[in-house]
Amino acid sequence: MKADLYIRVSTDEQAEKGYSQRDQEERLRKYCAYKNIQIRNVIYEDFSAKTFLRPAWKKILESYRSKHGQVQKILFTKWGRFSRNAADAFQMINLLRKLGVEPCAIEQPLDLDIPENKIMLGIYLTSPEVENDRRAINVRNGMRRAVKEGRYMNGAPIGYINRTTPEGKKYIAVDPPKAEIIKWAFETIVNRQLHIEEVYRLAKEKGLSCGKNHFWNVLRNPVYYGKIFLRGYKDEPDCIVKGNHDPIISEKLFIDVQDRLNGGKRVRKIQWRNS
Fold this sequence. Notes:
alpha/beta, Rossmann fold, 2 domains, 4-stranded parallel sheet, 9 helices, 8 strands, 46% helix, elongated
């Protein structure tokens, strides 16, 4: 009997990629030696298992279609290495079996000819998916909590620079040369009554490096007067929270610029949040 070994590492495992690959390969080779299975190919995949649109996997599938019967099994350590999407996995298993290739997780062996084992297969396949969903929720909730506490979680906007405290917490600090240009742009829009495009052109001459649309977003961003916009989620409305960073302009100057951008109409008030 011949088999291919499928060794996949996820994005989350990049830091220990080498170890993970070697560990999987060692266990698969020991299994083949014990079962007297001849190894045809060892396939390494460095891609997410959310779908089967993976470079190495597409090559494997093409080889099974073009060289039918040369291999009887494709082995991996656990079903989570094969897929993290139950619906796609069942379809792929059926396709592989039609091509004469039996997928097998050596540490979670299942006889797929027994109908009841499909229930266990579903558990094996969905457990990593549930874990991924829970991790994503935890990350999102953690980031929202950090914003509510005044931390700016994105890359530093123009006029600021990313910094890290001795304790390892990230924050944004004023970047004086660029901050002066940003402040000048806000003040010029109000004091000199220039058209926005003219202010943008002059700001670029002063050293501002961004596109026109980006500049428009800069003028709309409350981060410059020390606040952070938090988009609503579920039953929480959009809100503005007080940031921990230093402002570049005053709140009054920001509002005056919004009036200009809105053609003299007062900007809509967004709910404040008391952290």
